[in-house]
Amino acid sequence: MKDCSIKSPYAGKMKFFIEFCNHPPFEVSTETQWDDCLTRWTEAFQHPSYLTVDKRLVFKIHGAGYFFEQNGGDITRCQKMLDSLRKKAREVSGCEMIIGAGVGATDRIHNDHPIAKIFDFTCTYMDVPIHRRVEEDYPYEYLADLARSARYVHCQDGKAYMPYLAGGWNPKPWSDSRANYQFPTSEQWALELKRMKEDLLALPNLGLPRRDGTIQPAFSCYAWNEFGEGGIIAPTQGDGYMKLEEIRKCMSSTYDKTLYA
After folding, report:
1. What is the pTM of this model?
2. Cβ atoms 165, 193 nearer than 8 A
């Protein structure tokens, strides 16, 4: 992250935030390991391109379930870890922080859920439908349908939910046991962007929390360069700049300050 983002001469052209990847084998289960992470994140917290909402740094823990497991299922210990993260952010940047965590596409997070008690928002990095793996790729619409259904599930959650849009899932030739799916055509990709935009404006609770209790509409794309897993937004020899061009076309048309503040 430091070499690719912070040290780049073009770092000022794009906002970024940290997603702490805590899935196996990258567990952080001791306070010493956690303190080392805090030290390593310090430079990023001070960078002028770090993403903020209402001058609060955005931070995401990849998997909420893993975070609880790695802290022995102790919600008090989980809260202690997050409090130390917030304290470090204040010390080095002078900013407060909003902290999110990854959940499954269809895992409803009600008000009394432990995740809702300690995190400020939830989101999904990526989720894949349960289909039997066969030689032929399943239609892209199956991926899109799951991402779309997640918005309707989570818009009633106890916390804000930042939805995701799937750029693909096709890990060939990796030996992943899950099914493979076709990549979206330009028409399919444009349609899902349009649907995302409409849902962000129409459904409650989708995006990142603001200080006044409202929601800043926001979504993520899976993924910039997960080339091995086949989740790709970056330009490729096959699609060129198609996905980026469609994002710009959809999200810059009829400019809406509510959506893009």
Report:
1. 0.93
2. yes
Note the pLDDT tens digit of each residue in 45-93: 999 999 999 999 999 999 999 999 999 999 999 999 999 999 999 999 9
Cα→Cα distances 231→164, 172, 224, 234, Å: 12, 11, 7, 9
Q: Measure Cα distances from 235 to 216, 239, 241 in Å.
A: 28, 7, 5
Give the start-to-end residue ranges of the domains of the chain: 1-102, 133-261
